[in-house]
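Schema walkthrough. Field components (list of strings):
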Amino acid sequence: MANRVSEPLFHIVKRDNVSRKKAWCIRLIAIVLAILVSAILTTILTDDNPFQVCITMASGAFGTMRKTMVTLQNLAILLIISLALTPAFKMRFWNIGGEGQVLIGGLAAAACMELMGDRLPAGLSFPNWFVMVCMVVSSILAGALWGFIPAALKAKWNTNETLSTLMMNYIAIQLVAYFIIKWEVPKGSGKIGIINQSTNIGWLPQLFGSRYMLSIVLAIIVTIGMYIYLTYSKHGYEIAVVGESERTARYVGMKVKKVIIRTMLLSGGLCGLAGLLLVGSINHTITTTISNGQGFTAVMVSWLAKFNPFTMIFTTLLIVFLGRGASEISTKFELNQSFSDIVTGIILFFIIGCEFFINYKINFRKRKEDDVNV
Amino acid sequence: MVKYLGNVLFGHFPNFFSEETSLEAKVAAVQMRNVTKTFGSVIANDKVDLDIYKGEILALLGENGSGKTTLMNMLSGIYFPDDGQIFINGKEVVIASPKDAFSLGIGMVHQHFKLVDVLSAAENIILGLPGKLDLKAATMKIMEICQKYGFEVDPEQKIYNMSVSQKQTVEIVKVLYRGADILILDEPTAVLTPQETEKLFNVLRKMREDGKAIVIITHKMHEVESLSDRVAVLRRGAYVGDMMTKDTNAQEMTDMMVGRSVSLNIERPDPVDPHKRIAVRGLTVRSLDGILKLDDVSFDAYSGEILGIAGISGCGQKELLEAIAGLQQAEAGSISYVSDDGRKEELLGKDPLKIQEMGVTLSFVPEDRLGMGLVGNMDLADNMMLRSFRKGSSMFTDRKAPEKLASKVVEELDVVTPGISTPVRRLSGGNVQKVLVGREIASAPKVLLTAYAVRGLDINSSYTIYDLINQQKKKGVAVIFVGEDLDVLLEISDKILVLCGGRVSGIVDGRTADKNQIGLMMTTVGGEENGK
Amino acid sequence: MFDLVAFIPRAVGQGIPLMCGSTGETITQKSGNLNLGIPGVMYVGAISGVIGAFYYEKSIPEPGTLNPFLAITIPLLSCLLGSLLMGLLYCFLTVSLRANQNVTGLAMTTFGVGFGNFFGGSLIKISGADIPSIALSRTSLCFSKSLPFANNLGWFGKIFLSYGFLAYVAIILSFVASFIIKRTRPGLHLRAVGESPTTADAAGINVIAYKYIATCVGCMIAGLGGLYYVMDYACGVWSNDAFGDRGWLAIALVIFTIWRPNVGVFASIFFGGLYILYLYLPTGMDHMEYKELYKMIPYVVTLIVLVITSMRNKRENQPPESLGLPYFREER
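Field assembly_structure (string):
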């Protein structure tokens, strides 16, 4: 043989269909590997052994009853935001404006609390239930409006939604910043502080005697509702068709623009609801960072769950657990709080990467030297 | 003949007859041995042996899905074989990328043009070559090649401004520019007029005289007969055999391709009680970028008749059907629907939903099955729901009826599928089309629009589709059948409307029309009379 | 009175990080990769430079003078290395493993910002400062050194010659990028890869290599933007989250400039001006809150520009056709 044949070392073949069980196995392995890597990283940074690190993380998330409840409450909020973004993603509308939609919903709720609460001139007051109704309505509407603008631009001119929703985030942040200074207490502090501290006007009610339960119960309702909406309703069907192929949607007479706008109203509205819970039920104040990047995290949560509302419970749990666990570690070892972002990033990279092994197969060189000769 | 029978009976069979008898004098440019390629569970090529000789035009025949394109893609470096060997000029080679293919002198003109729309012809032609970017020198060389073979190319024209035949010319020049001497053309005539085809064939013959090895993939028997020296046939991924073109005929080749004899006759029942159903008057459509797509088109379509539409691809067929279906806005004209009692209703300016609400049952089998007619990632039942999901006032969809319909379509049309919850993109082309047509005729339409209904289908599926269309015709449906194969159009249609550049070139009777006449009408409005 | 001569240098200072980010992202997008991780990359670039500078400064106790060559090379190289690693990570996930680009990008931003703040925070702790920031003023002096005679040339010197060398590097890089994309063979190949990878592949162009190289070079240029911000604009002071959302604005700028880095030079400076405009607009004595509204201007303008570009529907002004889509040669 004159020329030595150099076959590529491996080549990649697309897999047709991998069983669901195998797919989840691959994902599970990826998560375990990612946790291992994070644990090793933590060990390097803290000199604690990896096993101990895991225990610390678990105790951070579920160590006490209160910690468990906080974890669940965080889970509920992130879950609601992820669910809110899901119909948009199913429609292939990259709504990364969850952050802004949550904030503006929160701002609307805070505005109701501010303007209809302690600030009213003496003698004038609204009944608490009325304030709450106003908060609910206005925050959902505000969120929906923040979803409507990019949707309308997309429908009318096909404006890139990834960037328009992103810009809407910053517009929301600056609006909140404006009102914070307008309402700041005390003057010059740059903070609003707890709103209606004395009268508790607009503080959403506690459920089952716990201030964490309202968000949790709502999250359960939204999860079930979203599952039914996406799987069984005509709207859900339209969303799926528009997402798969706009041309098919038009072919069967669906009004694509209407579907885009309607879905984004829903998506934004639900984000507004999350904002309402953050302000009215959890923090009773508003800051520009109240949503804490969850609008972005939710994009990944929703995608990791393959847009299935029930799977989303687990992906949310994973992210929240990591976040709380890593923050426990950073507290214990006096590391920076951003440690949790790094750990979350690592886990995400592993899960994102593992999808490859579900969809593709690598065939390594199998020909032997002696086969090459004819 | 013995060998041919053997192949018919046993599928793959060694082809020592032909090798021994006729080709010892020729030099093999390419030898493929035992080449195998699988995609998931589908075996696209199974231990294929194929020789290609210098100074010869080889026609590679086979039904759609028989693995012709896959096999050639392995030569051009797009796919990598799972097993087997390839020899070029007697030396074993590894073609791991298109670059390797180029350096071995292999060039392929793909069926779907591999051109970058926003770049100019010259930029596309020199794409991928090393060296400094010198468009002037490239232009000179391009003009040289054009002169040698008689091409017309404007090197500065952007691809998105070009017609399909111009794009194809760019593709061929691109391959020649690289000095390829093994040239592969994948269904090059699918988008050309008979006249353009003849021009292309002349060029190919010139190249053969230059000593180049040429492979042409096609389904069209008459092209095989007029152009090629030798025919090689693939069936279901396996090599069936080869023979000299002069020693064979269309019937024999078809038999080798499909494995058994099939009648080429398509049924054409006489129309029963035809009356006017769709009247199109002065329809003028402009595309979004301002190009006139339909220009003053007028015709009538009758119930119980098949109106065939002939024309070079992209000269207004798509716009015409979409305008009737309510998917295309028009600049001027009218499209009226005539109901049984003679009432006329305007369809233009209404969307598909409005048309449906008016009580006009109009079915449309579009050209782009998985991009428009069906949703590839959804299962059969969900795809059936596309037409019916709005039924009922409930907020929720009714899943029972579509599931029933899906089962019915699968059963009645022999759709090969693991079940009704399989995503349609996993089905083969023929089965996808059966699902689409099955759904469209399920609503008992008054008008049926079909675009390239058998494109990419094997012969058996094609006949199933012809049968279905004829059944609809017998039920009194007005059928508008856009086709590309003139033989089929001439056999199935009662009348044929010929489009040329968006204008009606003429309407002829399907029973008496002549193929050449239609071919001419496709390129010149009015055909011969105006052409002279 | 509005002082233009004072305003322009500040606008340029604000514009340079945006310019680096958008030039880097344009190169990346031309290869068909939509890298939403640019904000993270710029953080990593900045903090890598800071780490390099921090340890170099530490190795030479306070009164000692830094070797200007090392003071520039060490942070520069560590910045390039950090951003290169981010680029490789993005490419490995989206090109080799064909992952979703949007999700990968967002994860990179989460990671990158976290990385920056984590190590920033750790350095602050090591340095034991009272305030939550690190000051690398000695390194910064090397970076922000402008031509010695710039101050003698009045307004001309102030507007054109008063910047550190990285600013000029950024401007030159942008013009060079424009030239390469438009006028050279690698540029032609890059455009082909972004428009239609199947075509490029069939033409014998190594699509994977182009995507990797373009994305990694893009990330390194973007990382320089982060470095410029810390070392020159912020005078060597790193504080967590200070870099803010400039990375996102840089991505928006790519669309604003319709994928032309040479236009990006002017667009970035314009946006830099918008970014600090609030400092110059009158608010009245006790209405500080209006400043927050003025800060909204760049985002509103970006949004408006986005809408206008999408309204102008010209073929040449559209994004690369395969932008955001993974490429697999044997796709069926």
